[in-house]
Amino acid sequence: MKLHITDEAKKQLQQLQPVNHSMLRLYYDTDGCGCGVDGMPILHFTDQQTVYDEEVENDNYTVIIDDQQKLFFDESMTLEWNGQLFRLKSPKGMLNASISSTDIEKGGALVEQDE
């Protein structure tokens, strides 16, 4: 699995990155979406890694994903910044067209798994 981050997105991420959170986590957020298959792919900064995490190929950051959540993402993805929001897309189409800076910086409602 690979995540390409555009130059514009990288600049924005650098401004948002908390000092003590060096990794980006790809996550399928189902909070408030109903069942487990209704959700939105997001990513956010974290300092927590579990035994279930795998590394996603990336040239800029350590990007991790829970092994069980990989099925919600594509093998090749791109993170873009459109001046207001981040967009996560793949060659197959848009995965999430509206990822807020707040979600990336603070992690939204994510509950980390125990090791």
UniProtKB/TrEMBL annotation:
Pinpoint the Core domain residues. Answer: 1-100
One Pfam family name is: Fe-S_biosyn
Which SUPFAM superfamilies is this protein grouped with? Answer: HesB-like domain
Q: Which InterPro entries match?
A: ATAP_core_dom (IPR000361), HesB-like_dom_sf (IPR035903)
**Name of the protein described by the UniProt record:** Iron-sulfur cluster biosynthesis family protein
